[in-house]
Amino acid sequence: MSSQRAPTADLGDVTSARSRHQGRRSAVTLTDGLAVVGTADGDLRAFDVSTDAGPPRPRWQYDTDGEPSVVAAVPFDGGVVVGERSARGEIRCHDADGDLRWRYETRTDLGEAQQDTRFLLPFVASLATDGDRLYAAARRYERRTADDGSDQRHFESVIYAFGADGTVDWTYRTDGSPISLSARDGRLAVAYNRCPGDHQHGLVVLDADEGDPRWMWDPGTDGQRRVGDVTLLETGAVVTSHGDYCGYRLDSGGRERWCVPLATPTDIDGDTVYAYPNHVHATAEGAVFVTGNTYPEEGRETDARHPHEHTAIGVSPDGDRRWDAPVGGFASGLGTDGSLLAVPGAQNFRDRDADDHALRLFDIADGPIDTLDTDGVVTAAAVENGTAVAVEEPVVYHDEGYERGAYRLHRAGMESETAQSRR
């Protein structure tokens, strides 16, 4: 696997990330050689990345009002759709030149934020499309006092199906916390990472035309944690379980075909630690799971490290482990295109090793392809037709005190024979 530096384009100013994760505040997607970046101030910046020579070339910019951050972006109907974390929780559709086609404020359904605090704002957690419709998962989180005086989590969430003109075809409401969507072949899969209320299913597969549930699945574990991510296959789905830290292949209807332990509780020098499997990308060739930070079963701090934290794990279609490789830090999402995936490595808040800051590229069957080194942390990525793009954000670690990196877009071509053959 090679390592490289790539041409970059400036994205303006942004407050530096810190040692602890502050949540998503940037997004990027690729469509027909155009990289569209949703920024931490809510603006969109589009760059031509269709050629291999030189840095990404600015094409257009769309400025918005308020104090949003763009946290999700997907191509749709010849343009792009973006989703915000903001007081309005807006979903916006733009054409290929950046002009606004339509917009929808999810606070209409989710309600106003309990406080003007980032993690309490309406949040468009995921966007997906099957070509005909745009699907969005939006949620709002708040704290409530129960009858017994205890402090409880509460979510309001809505799954939307939009037509190309912005018409809402249907909605699906729960009090669970949706985190990921996958759409194909008349189905929409919704992964719920927390279920503190009446909704108690980590995975719901909906009929894409009507929004009615087809089948549901849950890891069946104690606590609120359920499913971290989902990918639909031609039949069934592959999911990451936050309940037992495993990966599952499900047949249609939710029957479990196989289960792979990923970062299950492990004793390290007397400290039992685990890591959540946060992401999955799957095709007929297999699946890749990506795990996150180490956590102890008791408390929050630990000197131990789970042996499979911050790891990409390749699995065959039959559930056999084929390869694994480090991803350097917490990944806020994946960029995917067929058998290729790009993993943005942000902070490893326990070790804070800046040498690990990078975008890492993988093939589902063969594993690591390439690494794009960065000075700051990589927080968003996309890949299309052998071109990868990544958003770098500056970071200041509390035990160093100086800024690394900048707010910028990277573009890299995949030069390996594997990457070429997978296009």
UniProtKB/TrEMBL annotation:
| Signal sequence bounds | none
Start-end of Basic and acidic residues biased regions: 297-311
Q: What is the lineage of its organism?
A: Archaea, Methanobacteriati, Methanobacteriota, Stenosarchaea group, Halobacteria
- What InterPro entries does the record tag this protein with? PQQ_b-propeller_rpt (IPR018391), PQQ_rpt_dom (IPR002372), Quinoprotein_ADH-like_sf (IPR011047), WD40/YVTN_repeat-like_dom_sf (IPR015943)
Domain of life of the organism encoding this protein: Archaea
Among the Pfam families in the record, one is: PQQ_2
Q: Region labeled Disordered — which residues?
A: 1-26, 297-319
Protein name per its UniProtKB record: Transcriptional regulator
The chain positions of domain Pyrrolo-quinoline quinone repeat read 60-258
